[in-house]
Amino acid sequence: MPREIRDVVFVDGVRTPFGKAKGQYAETRADDLVIKCIRELLRRNPDLPPERVDEVAIAATTQIGDQGLTIGRTAALLAGLPQTTPGYAIDRMCAGAMTAVTTTAAGIAFGAYDVVVAGGVEHMGRHPMGEGVDPNPRIISEKLVDTSALVMGSTAENLHDRFPSITKDRADAYAVASQEKAAKAYANDLIQPGLVAIATRSAEQGWGLATTDEPMRPGTTAGDLAKLKTPFRPHGRVTAGNSAGINDGATACVLASAEAAAELGLTPKMKLVSYGFAGVEPEVMGVGPIPATEKALKLAGLTIDDIQAFEVNEAFAVQVLAFLEHYGIADDDPRVNPYGGAIAYGHPLASSGVRLMNQLATQFEQRPEVRYGLTTMCVGLGMGGTVIWENPNWEGAAS
Ligand SMILES: CC(C)(COP(=O)(O)OP(=O)(O)OC[C@H]1O[C@@H](n2cnc3c(N)ncnc32)[C@H](O)[C@@H]1OP(=O)(O)O)[C@@H](O)C(=O)NCCC(=O)NCCS
């Protein structure tokens, strides 16, 4: 049977405010965070009948406890979607939500679904990185990877070694700018519309309401960062100030075929152009976005010069700078993370992909002169993922 590949659109995305591990969500379940995101998507899109959601894919890196039990299915049921809506769990560590988006989008393009919910959650306070893992001893004994590959901060130090031009001062300056841009985005109310407030509960402090990103440190100066320890290597370059932290949070988005969106009266915020995932040396996993971007650009028939809006996940400043240096883009290029990134907001691993997409959708809304943008992130064990999107508000479309 001949099939046509269908266009896929990003209809809407939301996220919880991100928390510091042991902070505002210390006594909040991980699954409750993502359930609230799904409910909020349904509330914001009353023209989307819940029974039209054909699949729910939710990512988590640590799939045990309140992030286990096939979280896409349990979250769908608990969010009030009909029992007939299936769901599943997905894992590609930091690119979990990104992979939930690309995998379900491929299902839409193929014709298996009309509308899906995709997202991710990570409660790093309840589930510390590496909880319960049992790496096959062969990985180390057969030297498939260097031991440093299993500690993300060490891979960032290795990346500094590979790019000697990326100094600690440059990484710190990038981190200061991320905090400044995030504070400005908050002041301009560009982030808050994409957040869903979360009721929190503390045995000691009672009920609360999380409405803002807890990790942000507005007013950070280069002088502050210069004093911080380098926990991954003596006299290293990676610090708590130029890395994303240990965070809790969840994201979710609605994707649809262009036809289903039109039928239901849903206005697309972005149109999917292409995506690519790539593997690199695990001990320098931060370079992953470069080959992933090459794959996505090639598939789209575009070059990096066609991309006018970037959302690069800031797991570590050095990894963003390596990406920018590869493409000859300045550290402070205004097209890159104009509202700040994970260094300011936090990086609850498997949730972050949709945060990037939400911020790119805001860039598209604010910048109708932009046609193409990309979201990209590095991934543990040596991978990168990139998704290229087209702006439906692009002013050139009319001419
Ligand atoms: C880097 C890391 C080890 C730091 O952990 P931590 O020591 O618990 O971090 P903290 O938030 O307590 O910060 C450490 C110190 O730096 C200070 N600090 C952090 N950011 C700062 C900023 N922007 N300005 C000033 N001080 C700052 C803190 O106040 C703290 O000071 P203190 O020790 O006097 O209390 C941790 O955040 C980490 O592992 N990050 C990477 C996460 C990761 O690998 N993600 C996956 C990516 S692929």
UniProtKB/TrEMBL annotation:
SUPFAM superfamilies: Thiolase-like. One of its GO terms (biological process) is phenylacetate catabolic process. Pfam families: Thiolase_C, Thiolase_N. The active site is at C94 (acyl-thioester intermediate), H347 (proton acceptor), C378 (proton acceptor). It is an enzyme of class 2 (transferase). Keywords: Acyltransferase, Transferase. GO terms for cellular component: cytoplasm. Coiled coil: none annotated. PROSITE patterns: THIOLASE_2. Residues 267-390 form the Thiolase C-terminal domain. Residues 8-258 form the Thiolase N-terminal domain. NCBIfam families: AcCoA-C-Actrans. Belongs to the thiolase-like superfamily. Thiolase family. This is Acetyl-CoA C-acyltransferase. It comes from Kribbella sandramycini.
